[in-house]
Description:
Blueprint: H1 8-20, H2 23-30, H3 34-48, E1 53-56, E2 59-62, H4 64-84, E3 98-102, H5 105-122, E4 127-131, H6 135-144, E5 149-152, E6 162-170, E7 172-177, H7 189-194, E8 196-200, H8 207-217, E9 222-227, H9 233-238, E10 243-247, H10 248-254, E11 260-263, E12 272-279, H11 286-299, H12 311-319, H13 329-332
Parallel strand pairs: 3-4, 3-5, 8-9, 8-10
Antiparallel strand pairs: 1-2, 5-12, 6-12, 7-10, 7-11
Amino acid sequence: xxxxxxxxxxxxxxxxxxxxxxxxxxxxxxxxxxxxxxxxxxxxxxxxxxxxxxxxxxxxxxxxxxxxxxxxxxxxxxxxxxxxxxxxxxxxxxxxxxxxxxxxxxxxxxxxxxxxxxxxxxxxxxxxxxxxxxxxxxxxxxxxxxxxxxxxxxxxxxxxxxxxxxxxxxxxxxxxxxxxxxxxxxxxxxxxxxxxxxxxxxxxxxxxxxxxxxxxxxxxxxxxxxxxxxxxxxxxxxxxxxxxxxxxxxxxxxxxxxxxxxxxxxxxxxxxxxxxxxxxxxxxxxxxxxxxxxxxxxxxxxxxxxxxxxxxxxxxxxxxxxxxxxxxxxxxxxx
Length: 335
């Protein structure tokens, strides 16, 4: 096989293998037999002189050579789907498509419960792959067609033919232990400045809005812990005298699970706009149109963790093991 003699159908197989990482699942997605996909993979291996996919655990993991091919292959196939071959109608109840979403750890916690329930009811064969990428890699993956949809907040995430739709806004609040020796039902600027802080540092994420606000106000904290992860911070706060400033969703969840107080910031701070982002290449794709409409139906104008329209979060908030005591700001002052 010459360097230029590569059947476009083989690139389609490669595209589906990147999504499913399983020969049987790829065969189902393509509507062909498993031996047919195996034969196509054999031809691809011969053409590129590499295994491309190797079995690791329960899936076929791409090799380094395959990873180098991922971007170009996705760009080619996205162009084929959107610009060359018109897509037919999307039938969610019959589709076994795998959608790749970009979500942070907090985004998974906020969006996935309701989204997965809705998908299981309306499109039971559809699967989801959630990935977390740095902003630059995420932008390139959206452009290349490797990511179907990004949900959350991303600083200066525009241009390059990217579309977005605002879903809802979320404020920042402070978390302290219920047993904090000096902070009770409210927080002053003096207490904020004098307290020890745990800080979440994630490039290009919502926390940068809060950090910029501190700089603008000339407020400096005593930082004793820096971490890139939201999920471990509340448990650390519950058993220390530290203060953490987090998005409201984190506070709503963890004040129900452990001994924490949720307090309003002692100064004003802009809210965070959570959006869904997609690239022009998938703008007219019937499958991603359907997914975007579903996301908008579930989350537009409504933070799911408020529990007002969310079956999952309403049930969680009602049945969580810890119910806020009278006077607890998590029950009355915030959210």
